Each structure stands twice: as C-alpha cells, then as structure tokens.
Amino acid sequence: MNYPFAFNDDLFDFWPIYEALQRYYPLGMKKERGNGYYRYPGTKAKEKLLVEYVHNREAYQKGWVHFCQYIEGEIGLPVASTTLGQAPSLGAEVVLLDQTMNHVKHVRSLRFNISLLGPFYQIFGVDKTYLIEAENQTPLQQFVVNLVTPSPHGAFEVVFSEIEKLIQERHPDYRILPFFVHQMYVDGLQVAYNDEAVGTVGEALFDDFLRLHEYAPLDRETQYGASLWVRPGVRWPSEGVIS
Known about the structure:
By secondary structure, the chain is α+β, with helices and mostly antiparallel strands. The chain has helices at 15-24, 41-55, 57-75, 157-170, 179-182, 201-205, 219-222; strands at residues 79-81, 89-101, 104-115, 120-132, 139-149, 175-176, 235-236, 240-241.
C-alpha cells in the first residue's frame, strides 16, 4: 500500500530525497509533449546522466559492469546487470535459488540498485514461483510473488548483508532507502519511462520493478535503514542515540 510523501520531521531528515525529486522532476506537470515536461532543466540533466553512465558503453563497462564483477568475486555467486536504458539507476540481480520440480519453478533472488540522482541505494529479496509449460519446459510469464523483503532477513540475510557492505565501501556517503519511503507517492510526480499517473519515490530514484511485484512485507521490515536517516542527537527507539 502506498502513502503520500510525509514523515516525522522531528525524527527523520528525508529532505535530501525530496530535494532530489524537485531537482530532476517537474513536480505538478503532466508528462506530455509540448507542455514543458521534457524541456525542464532537471529532465535534461537526468537524460545527461543516463547517457554518461548507462548509454556510454565504455563508462558503463568500466563503472557498473566491473563493480558487478567485483561483487560476484566477493560473494561467489553470479551477478547479472538489470540496468534499464531509461530508469535512473544502475541495477543488478543475484540468483540465490533456481529450482524446478513437477512443472513448478521456484526462484529466489536479490536485486540492488544505485541511483544516478543522488546518494541512495536499494536492496531487496524476491521469492517467486512460476508454472512450467509441459510441452517445451519453459517458465510461463505469469508468476506468484511469495515474498519481497527489503531487509537482511531469513534466506536472504547473508548475501544481502554482504552486498550492502560492498556498496557502502564503494559509496560511503550513500544511504539505503527505507521501504516505507520507497513506496510513498508524490502528487504531480510522473516518471518518463512508464505510463503511471502518479509515481512513487522508489520509481523516481531507481526503477519500477517493485510495481510488478507487489507484496506487503512485514512492518518491521519496512523500517530497515530508517536509523540512517534519523536527525543527529535524536533517540532512535531501538538503537539508542544517533550521533
């Protein structure tokens, strides 16, 4: 379930997120040709970042592909890029389990993204089940989402934590986007790469993968990473005083 962008300003400082949205999106303007949406300076700046870090093959290989290869070597599992040409992030996937039995395919994977629009990243685990077509033994496009977890929990815990550590080592000033903020929407926010009338914070900063995998995680999981956004000196209920 999505909620409008709002937070306890006495406890959290999520303003850098909102400022990034303002910088790169013409909030309140419909995504239409000829009305200024695509001429907004932030839209052009976002397109420039995509060209620089994604469409520039040499830079993409030296930057993101090499980092994925480094992660692969550290965790001992294949890492495949999931970067999209229009979404403003660099993404990848690690398959933890791929098992087929009695025409049912069970896949468990971790996905992670680094935003191009600010010092933000996301990691979440996905557990899905596909039906296998009997004739050619290929998975059908329809699937059931068993679980989405945005925290190092259960079967995802070890690899989730390892990937987060590697991201933090490479980008020490970046912070994970808590899931409850990821799913918030902003009135007047539309992203260029899909046709949704209102976009979420996560879609604006990363991609819309989670829109295709809707699942309500446990409340305690949605809070993961929130302590990184607590104002200095304010007491975080479960972790004492954040300095």
